Amino acid sequence: MGEAPAISVDHLENGHSNGVYVKSEPKNIEISVEIGDRTFMIGGNHERNNFSIGVQIHDKNSNNWFSPIVLGTGPKPSQGYSAFVLEQGRILVIKKGSPRNESIWFLEVDSPYVREQKKLLRKEVVAWSKGVRGNAEKPIVISGPSGVGKGTLISMLMKEFPSMFGFSVSHTTRSPRSMERDGVHYHFADKKVMEKEIKDGKFLEFASVHGNLYGTSIESVEAVTDSGKRCILDIDVQGARSVRASSLDAIFIFVCPPSMKELEDRLRARGTETEEQIQKRLRNAEAEIKEGISSGIFGLILYNDNLEECYKKLKKLLGLDEVTSVNGVEIEGINLPTEHTVSKMEDKIIIQETGKETRNKIVLDISSLNGGAPGRTRGILVDAIKF
Ligand SMILES: Nc1ncnc2c1ncn2[C@@H]1O[C@H](COP(=O)(O)OP(=O)(O)OP(=O)(O)O)[C@@H](O)[C@H]1O
Ligand SMILES: Nc1nc2c(ncn2[C@@H]2O[C@H](COP(=O)(O)O)[C@@H](O)[C@H]2O)c(=O)[nH]1
């Protein structure tokens, strides 16, 4: 995402701005953002709505101040803000010391939505949307070699968030394991019947995996979606490739083992396959890992060494972490440091703490933003580094 030309941000006495040193004062702060011949003052109290911060516009040509119509629900007043002008007429506004999911906001000042509203209302309009961490709604495709722990991680997620996630029950021609139930773990299918259904276009994807046929029926995914839950697919790399080429807009996660030895130990300890099947799965694992890492199918790669750590990272990728701890830094929402600089590098907003011995850096990855005013802007990933 490139930056729009001819846009700059200034900071006034209390404010905070692009790429410069900032010291926030603990009082009712306003930030001043300059875009072309206009200055947007963001902060203080909204003149008509005490629950949302205000926006005022100064037009340099007429030297007039005016209050635009503010659409959407904006952030509540806070003791500090940081702002950064993004492309598409959007200003990223970060609130200091806010609770989880209350820290990141977008003020649209010249987006397609705002331009449309200006035409309709014949007034100056700006619009808020709340920044939502992670991609909260897209189906999740999880792949990785047999025995790496995909099923274990998915079970943990479904146990902790039972109303949020639903599992896409695959079809398979392999025999059930002793604990597996038809229609719960898999739809155990006859090969000829499954092949006929594939021919009839009933499957989103299918593949021959370790000598058996596996596939995701369209019905299985729709059953989860109809129940209002986010669908999780546990499928192999071939299947993930097919889903990627399909119309299903999903996020793709590949789970890697810490080593081949550990993968072998896990498969043996599970005790569900014969020695011959274990050998076959291990042989296939090498090619799967190579493809998983290098094919470009998977946007996110997780190493499942320590299960709890891996689960935490998975939740973070999905924007589900209550309090995020990354590299030893605890961040409740985005705890904006009092003194900091803000800069942008490609698709990353870098908030760098200054003036202390230990410096925290918070990185907002905004490469996959979607949605916008007057609702939610999704897809922000947050990382924190202490050095
Ligand atoms: N991080 C971990 N450390 C140690 N053991 C683990 C870890 N994660 C999972 N396991 C164990 O490894 C075994 C394999 O895990 P699991 O069945 O979840 O793998 P899987 O990737 O779903 O395999 P498959 O693709 O064959 O279904 C299980 O016995 C599980 O308890
Ligand atoms: N392409 C697909 N792969 C699938 C599907 N369901 C499961 N799988 C993958 O198969 C292997 C082996 O699973 P197991 O239960 O026999 O151990 C594993 O990698 C799964 O991810 C599917 O519908 N399509």
Automatic annotation (TrEMBL):
Query: May I have one GO cellular component term?
Result: cytosol
Q: Which residues form the Guanylate kinase-like domain?
A: 137-319
Give the highest taxon in the source lineage. Eukaryota
A GO molecular function annotation here is: ATP binding
- The top EC class, named as a word, is transferase
Please name the InterPro entries in this protein's record. Answer: GK/Ca_channel_bsu, Guanylate_kin-like_dom, Guanylate_kinase
Matching entries from CDD domains are given as: GMPK (cd00071)
Q: Which reaction is this enzyme known to catalyze?
A: GMP + ATP = GDP + ADP
Which keywords, in A-to-Z order, does the entry hold? ATP-binding, Kinase, Nucleotide-binding, Transferase
Q: So what EC number does this one have?
A: 2.7.4.8
Does the record carry Amino-acid biosynthesis as a key word?
no
S-adenosyl-L-methionine as a keyword of this entry, yes or no, is: no
Q: What family, per the record?
A: Belongs to the guanylate kinase family.
Which named protein is this? Answer: guanylate kinase
Q: Which organism is it from?
A: Arabidopsis thaliana x Arabidopsis arenosa
